Amino acid sequence: MPGESAGLPASPLDEMQFLTLRQAVIRRRPIRRAARVARGSAWTILIVGFSGWPALFFMPSMSGLLVVAGICGVGALEYIGAGKMHDGDPSAPRFLARNQLIFVVLIAAYCVYQMLSYSPAETASSPQMKDEMALLTGGGGDLGHSVQAMLPVLTYVFWFLVLFTSAIGQGCLAVYYFSRRKYVDLYDRETPDWVKRIVTEVES
Q: Percentage of residues in the chain with pLDDT exceeding 90?
């Protein structure tokens, strides 16, 4: 063989083992992509969660604390799930999909809470709102009353849009994770353990 004639040691692997390695690399491609998506999602969620902590020092509230802690928890679980997906753990797709559904429930609960706790009378009578309305309308009474009358509708529409877009985004991500199950199962079933170890350690 060429390697032996050049004084190089012969490969300890035969052609069938090389073929097994190539097939494993091909099977892992959708799994690696899913792991990258999950890792990016985890960092995004964690950044959003941690950015909410400073606001609690200026506007402390139990609901805010629960939401920020919940977002950070979802981000941490997403990061754990990304590691599971990278390792080809068969439980990873279900773990990540369930985490996204939990995130949707958390967002939905917060949006519904905001809509139910919204009080047009309290909002309109607050000094801050009065100052903002005066600045926005230039002191125009009729225009101010018109904008003020629209505030409840705008508030409900805003929180509904947050809920709707989150449900679509996180729902699609959950479906994507769950659809990776067939690839993870195929990789786990068809790939020998020694090949899994080689591929995983080379990628690390």
A: 42
Q: How confident is the model at residue 186 (pLDDT cuts 50, 70, 90)?
A: very high
Position 143 scores a pLDDT of: 47
Q: List the helix and strand counts (H, then E) for the chain.
A: 10, 0
pLDDT value, residue 3? 47
Asked if residue 41 has pLDDT above 80, the reply is yes
Higher pLDDT, 16 or 135: 16
Per-residue confidence band for 198, with pLDDT thresholds at 50, 70 and 90: confident
CB 179 within 8 A of CB 92: no
Burial of 22 (0-12, 13-18, 19+ CB in 10 A): exposed
For 25-46, b/e burial (b = at least 16 CB within 10 A) is bebbebbeebbebbbebbeebb
| Rounded (10°) CA dihedral 35, 38, 42, 48 | 150
The helix (run of H) or strand (run of E) holding residue 164 is helix 141-179
Classify burial at 57, counting beta carbons within 10 Å of its beta carbon; exposed 0-12, middle 13-18, buried 19 or more: exposed
Burial (CB < 10 A; 0-12, 13-18, 19+), residue 169, is middle
- Nearest alpha-carbon partner for 22 in 163, 146, 202, 185: 202
- Name the nearest CA neighbour of 68 among 48, 49, 43, 47: 49
